[in-house]
Specification:
The complex is a heterodimer of chains A (about 110) and B (about 110). With about 110 residues, chain A is mainly beta. Chain A contains no helices and 11 strands. Chain A has strands at about 5, 10-15, 20-25, 30-35, 45-50, 55, 65-70, 75-80, 90-95, 105, 110. Chain B is about 0% helix and about 55% strand. In chain B, a hairpin with a 6-residue loop joins strand 4 (about 30-40) and strand 5. Chain B is globular and about 40 Å long. The mean pLDDT of chain B is about 95. The chains are: A mainly beta (about 110), B mainly beta (about 110). The interface of A and B includes residues 41, 56 and 91 of A.
Chain lengths: ~110, ~110
């Protein structure tokens, strides 16, 4: 089966600019997650979708981050405007359902100058 | 307030010996636990899991032990191989809420 696809792999922007990441989960996976991983830390959940509905976005900085999952398949995560502290790897994962093992993409490494 | 802690940032073992990675949690609502392995520039990959109704789960060279009273789990790798060198993340799940929480990882180095 094809894995979770993410793009781009790398992105460099200046602070206050905007950026968007794309994720295509494994076919049939109802649950989709976006994580932020800062160097030396574990993945921190930003938002979790069940089909195209939001299950948990309690740790999403909603003043600058937004995410959507149209038609319950692909998802995009946007940051506008970016801050220096947003430099991190952004991981997308999908699973068959709640609590099931997650399948991760290779992430997007974001650098803010 | 970190609910899942991996207190050893790194571990180094000799090839063929046992590797033991530890994880502690504080939230009693967690009822499912997973270990993920991560190589550089790749996303984490699922390794092994255990439900709170069990105290041990084994898959080949990998065994996970759960001590609910101590809120502690461990991953044993026997025998360790150089290809096991990676970052290992412990994750705990509250299946009722569908929420997963990750530890900060332990970097395992297996020396030939």
């Amino acid at each position: 089966e094809a894995g979770v696809a993410q793009s781009p792999r790398y992105k460099i922007i200046e602070k206050r600019q905007s950026v968007a990441f794309w994720c295509n989960p494994i076919s049939g996976h109802a649950t989709l997650y976006w994580y932020q991983q800062i160097l030396g830390q574990g993945p921190k959940l930003l938002i979790q979708f069940q089909n195209n509905g939001v299950v948990d976005d309690s740790q999403l900085p909603k003043d600058r981050f937004s995410a959507e999952r149209l038609k319950g398949v692909d998802s995009t995560l946007k940051i506008q405007p970016a801050k220096l502290e947003d430099s991190a790897v952004y991981l997308c994962a999908s699973s068959l359902g709640y609590g099931q093992p997650q399948h991760f993409g290779d992430g997007t490494r974001l650098s803010i100058l | 307030d970190q609910q899942v802690k991996q207190n050893s940032p790194s571990l180094s073992v000799q090839e063929g010996r046992i590797s033991i990675l530890n994880c502690d949690y504080t939230n009693s609502m967690f009822d499912y636990f997973l270990w993920y392995k991560k190589y550089p520039a790749e996303g984490p990959t699922f390794l092994i899991s255990i439900s709170s109704i069990k105290d041990k789960n084994e898959d080949g060279r990998f065994t996970v032990f759960l001590n609910k009273s101590a809120k502690h789990l461990s991953l044993h790798i026997v025998p360790s191989q150089p290809g096991d060198s990676a970052v290992y993340f412990c994750a705990a799940v509250d299946t009722n809420a569908g929420k997963s929480t990750f530890g900060d990882g332990t970097t395992l180095t297996v020396k030939p």
